[in-house]
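Key idea: predict the complex, not the pieces.
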Amino acid sequence: MISQLSWKIGGQQGEGVESTDRIFSTALNRLGYYLYGYRHFSSRIKGGHTNNKIRISTKPIRAISDDLDILVAFDQESIDLNAKELRSGGVIVADAKFSPTVPEGIEARLFAVPITAIAEELGTSLMKNMVASGASWALLGLPLEVFNKAVEEEFGRKGPAVVEKNVEAVKRGAEFILEQAGGPLEEFRLEEADGKQKLFMIGNEALGLGAIAAGCRLMSAYPITPASEIMEYLIKKLPKFGGTVVQTEDEIAAATMAIGANYAGVRTMTASAGPGLSLMMEAIGLSGMTETPLVIIDTQRGGPSTGLPTKQEQSDINALIYGTHGEIPKVVIAPSTIEECFYDMIEAFNVAETYQVPVIVATDLQLSLGKQSCEPLDYEKIVIERGKLQTGELPPLEEHKMFKRYEFTEDGISPRVLPGAKYGIHHVTGVEHDQEGRPSESAANRKLMMEKRLGKLRSLRIRDAIKADAPSEAPDLLIVAMGSTGGTIDEARTRLAAEGITTNHVTVRQLHPFPSDLVEPYLKQAKKVVVLENNATAQLANLIKQNVGYHDKIESLLKYDGTPFLPHEIEKACKEMK
Amino acid sequence: MATFKEFRNNVKPNWCPGCGDFSVQAAIQRAAANIGLEPEQLAVISGIGCSGRISGYINAYGLHGIHGRALPIAQGVKLANRELTVIASGGDGDGFAIGMGHTVHAIRRNLDITYIVMDNQIYGLTKGQTSPRSAEGFKTKSTPEGSIENTLSPLEIALSAGATFVAQSFSSDLKQLTSLIEAGLKHKGFSLINVFSPCVTFNKVNTYDWFKENIVNLDQFPDYDPSNRIAAMNKIMETNGMLTGLIYQDKERKPYEDLVVGFKPEALAKQDLTLSREDFDKLLAEFK
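Result:
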């Protein structure tokens, strides 16, 4: 019996890889397994190799595995590209139609199943994904009823005849392979899961869900990979809560429309990736200057320019922190787990309204698109804080006086009123302004206003601004990272511990303003620090050096080939650096 | 009920004496009072440029945003609070150069806002460069040999983008301008009102006198039918865009807000933000 297993399906884009993966993982989720998915895809709709990998475990997992146990291949290219990942003794389930072969030097068992032939016999080659997934499911010896239930849900809306045919395809695939293999493979028999169904979603869905919980009712956005799922999720859900999603003509409109709506009192966000964020920079400055709340999600992908739109990277850090001209207060939050994607959206809206600043929530492609098990989300933790928003009646204003929307206060945060409020009229402008919002070029006023705005965030610490897993008081290595890499790091740390190397792990969640005071003690106690990130210029490491110091201790582990870190890469590099 | 004086504040505009924008400011104040608005019910969202300062010169909620983006900001305001009367405003550079993409899409989106463009055929605040509205051959600091680009026709563009209200006026004709702004504010949907608003400092060609000589006023044609889109397009082309009055109005098409599924008649900004436990559980159930 094993406690975890990795399964991958590969084929041409548009061949049913996505739907097979969806049904396969839904069925596993029903049985209570923890799942972590990885999508390899390209910026095209039909054609081109694509594959989805799922890691299945009886315990929580947050990382892709180094190797692979089962590869389901619709074509020889899928075998040629992915067989090297198979561990010795791994299995390939392939369509007999293309006379599959195992590449030289790979030790794997090949099951050639007449996938297309069976599907065509049942009426359409479209069902070959069902034959293939049925076959690989049967090898695991898992109950077929659960799988069929997932098939029924996938095809239910197409009518019972379609469901029946697909169930038959699954059955035929299963029967064929069981005969060939002589029954389920013992070495792939998974321990029973706890049977408790987990939430199973991608980060983008968790972000959308978090936004609804946060009271976000409008989203203005322009489609882009890998952010579009957020707007697609919200356009399905927001109408029920009186809101909507507007697909704008570009990202500039998306950000400025969100500013207008936040100004008028509705929690509104936009979401994009690097190219869109670049276009939004001027608007972010307007939000900062006019102290209008704004929430933006940046699902980081491979840059620069169009870069690698469907690949992993964490290279927007500098752009997000420094991208706007002039100097404004701004918050950048980087969730590192699927659960944090949910809770951080609530935090983002609360911070945006409380401090009247733009807040950027930065994920990365793997966190945004990797489908994974999510711990139960806690309704009790949903709290909406709107700061100094004045909702009651206001006292009358003196003649020709306006509401002091930018009143100097001790904490720099001024009372805020919404358009429509009697006696609340004030001016809002991106031009430097006085306390009522009127343009002002007075040097004295300028100085005070700059200090007011920039001072607002001086003490800001979001909930869990950093996360530390620091069992050692003087570790050989401190590993610092952000975003989706945490799970992979922890897996590598377990292996390093087994080899006698002590490690601590700090995840930076508040990237800006940088929580130096929280990070510093961990740097101090460590013998050496490895900052691990998916970019080429060590942006996070530089941020730490700039804010905290310890230049002599810090080394970088960088990966910028478009793929996420694997546990063995971190393990190897850490051993060398120690 | 508020009078037009209540839409005044004591801020002195930084416009040059004789600037056409003064009349636009007065016309907005009069139109707002005439249709019975209180100052707090009006939001004026403006862009950047001399004319963009207008939001600071009217006693109402005002937001002076960034160059070319008055329209998306104004649409955001309207979506958040449809009980507000929302005016977007700016110059021809703001709306027809840097912001043209937004103009076309705001027109086709058709939210119930009124867009007033102060069109002086020149960049004034940056001290005299060509605008998309400049005539071919027009000499400016950026076109010393004369502009070699075609002049943009915002009225034709508006009609072809599906505008439901297109009007044009001249800042010397305060009466017509006020009544067109009133009609625009009352129109259920997006209204474009382009106003010839002469720049007395940098444009020595398109002067008050020049406009008086060249304008065709549709008010003089009682038979003109503004509900006929083809006739409207013909009229714009016949007059080379030098016409004033209500050019086109489609009273049938519903504004965007009325077409959004699930959108309620009351302001979204006034609705409850909280998510019930029942709804939360329902949302989660879809991920099991």
